[in-house]
């Protein structure tokens, strides 16, 4: 299990953020209907093997558990979140991500996308989460499956994720083309690109 360093709440809270006890619900699309019989996760792009995984196949992947803090661009931080799911690197290894990969784009059923550099998702704490605090991930928070990349603002952690494309270049996602910062480091306050 990957475990975050514990420490002072103030030191773990990025500038301009406030710690919340609740978990606000924010998204730019309706919550999609989940049918485990028809759900598919696709891995495409600069890989040796494109993959299409069913819900059953995805859930059979080796499970990891991490503890992390999350930071929303709107100014809230939630500390000590526990996630269970498949490590991002597990998907990258199974698909055979090519050495020329520099970025990935994850997608949701509505067409929502988020881009990230490959090093951000190959970190030990990046995973496709199906559980939160020991329970299945609630649909309002991205269930059945959500990408979790704790070192970036939370809009980069695509809710209802159904695919990842490995790229040899950067391709901005939904919020990035609308003026949000491309890198989204919370401690550098990379909220907007202007």
Give the arrangement of secondary structure elements:
Elements: E1 2-3, E2 18-19, E3 40-45, E4 51-54, H1 55-59, E5 64-71, E6 76-87, H2 88-95, E7 103-107, E8 113-117, H3 118-121, E9 127-132, E10 135-136, E11 146-148, E12 163-167
Parallel strand pairs: 1-5, 2-6, 3-12
Antiparallel strand pairs: 3-4, 5-6, 6-9, 7-8, 7-12, 9-10, 9-11
Can you tell me about this structure?
- The protein has 194 residues and is mainly beta.
- It has one domain (8-23, 62-188): Alpha-Beta Complex (Sulfite Oxidase, Chain A, domain 2).
- The chain is built from three helices and twelve strands; from the N terminus they run ββββαββαββαββββ.
- The strands form two sheets. Strands 1, 2, 5, 6, 9, 10 and 11 form a seven-stranded mixed beta sheet that branches.
- The radius of gyration is 16 Å and the shape is globular.
- The model is unreliable at 1-5 (pLDDT under 50).
Report, as a whole number of angstroms, the end-to-end distance. Answer: 38 Å
Strands, count = 12
The fraction of residues assigned to DSSP E strands is 25-35%
Biggest sheet overview: 7 strands, mixed
The poorly predicted ranges are: 1-5
CATH homologous group name: Oxidoreductase, molybdopterin-binding domain
Helix content: under 10%
Named at the architecture level, the CATH assignment is Alpha-Beta Complex
Shape: globular
Regarding CATH, which class?
Answer: Alpha Beta
Our count of domains comes out at: 1
Instruction: Supply Rg.
Output: 16 Å
Structural class: mainly beta
Order of helices and strands: EEEEHEEHEEHEEEE
Helix tally? 3
Give the overall average pLDDT.
93
Q: Assign the CATH topology.
A: Sulfite Oxidase, Chain A, domain 2
């Amino acid at each position: 299990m990957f475990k975050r360093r514990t420490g002072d709440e103030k030191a773990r809270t990025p500038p301009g953020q406030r710690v919340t006890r609740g978990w606000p619900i924010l998204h730019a699309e309706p919550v999609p209907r989940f049918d485990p019989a028809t759900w598919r996760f696709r891995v495409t792009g600069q890989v040796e093997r494109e993959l299409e995984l069913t819900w059953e196949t995805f859930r059979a992947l080796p499970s990891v558990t991490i503890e992390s803090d999350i930071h929303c661009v709107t100014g809230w931080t939630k500390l000590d979140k526990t996630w269970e799911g498949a490590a991002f690197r597990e998907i990258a290894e199974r698909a055979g991500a090519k050495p020329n990969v520099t970025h990935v784009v994850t997608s949701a059923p509505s067409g929502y996308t988020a881009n990230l550099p490959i090093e951000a998702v190959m970190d030990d704490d990046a995973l496709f989460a199906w559980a939160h605090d020991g329970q299945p991930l609630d649909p309002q928070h991205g269930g059945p499956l959500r990408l979790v990349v704790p070192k970036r603002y939370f809009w980069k952690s695509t809710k209802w994720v159904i695919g990842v494309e490995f790229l040899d270049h950067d391709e901005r996602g939904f919020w990035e083309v609308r003026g949000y910062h491309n890198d989204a480091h919370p401690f550098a306050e990379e909220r907007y690109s202007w």
